[in-house]
């Protein structure tokens, strides 16, 4: 009988609760035991009442809730091997043999580190007399399954992350509201959206709201005259009869020299050069708020169910996995290679190799 631990970690994202619910319900349906781990890696390190056996009704009402009811954290201790060893001890003492981590690239990198070190943790704990020989044998392996919960949609090996569609919906609602007031005053709005070093949210929002200009990390404006090109494009659109201007800036946007492009800077250009009445809106955490859209409920539920199936299918040779979506199909790929690819992707962005990075990133928009 499998004993599955479930936790959420890193930044919260809409749909995390739906994933937790699906895992608990599917696990119980498939005759597994499951444990809710509260407050991310902090809970795993604290143990005790932070690791609680779950009943069906413990996740009632989760499907439609935003954020994460079981809590999340940024946990510095888990970044250290010593912290991960305490987590390993609590996992073993709780009898957990499979761990599902719902989080972003940082959380899944942490999970991958725990996976890589698992045998040495078991040996150390046995040598230190903290676990018995029987416990060491029973926990010879820890199966980890990652679900990507992040509004940024920034992980390699999945087309979409849990939370990204809901954040996009929230951004579109907010921009639609801004457009009404912009129209009345013939104003320009510069809107900053989240996404860290990934432009998926900004680019998708620009398409969905009909923005005039968008800045994303993967496609920095080329040359020194980008400001003039932007001004010309905006002037042309006004000359053609448009009463408003909308510019979307991803929080990680930069020019080709990697100098950040910030909303305030765009505002100053529009105000000084074009004399546009310009306002800046930084959407901030509202993008993470509210209930998950149908897409995130669906993706999270399908992925949660697949996480349990993957655990049940696994034998001693099965690697830890990451559940994703590729070409509209739920996938289970090795966690190790997904994390490696994501690291390569981030490194390519840092080296300004944007085309390479975009190819590595498996999202709906590749160009
Ligand atoms: P989001 O994309 O929403 O920010 P995230 O999971 O990437 O989510 P992080 O703050 O990067 O968020 O990571 C969450 C937690 O995962 C960290 O606080 C830490 O406990 C753990 N973690 C991150 N990176 C590592 C690492 N390299 N090794 C071990 N643990 C890590």
TrEMBL record:
Signal peptide: none annotated. It comes from the Eukaryota. Residues 3-311 form the Phosphofructokinase domain. It is found in: Cytoplasm. Belongs to the phosphofructokinase type A (PFKA) family. ATP-dependent PFK group I subfamily. Eukaryotic two domain clade "E" sub-subfamily. This is 6-phosphofructokinase.
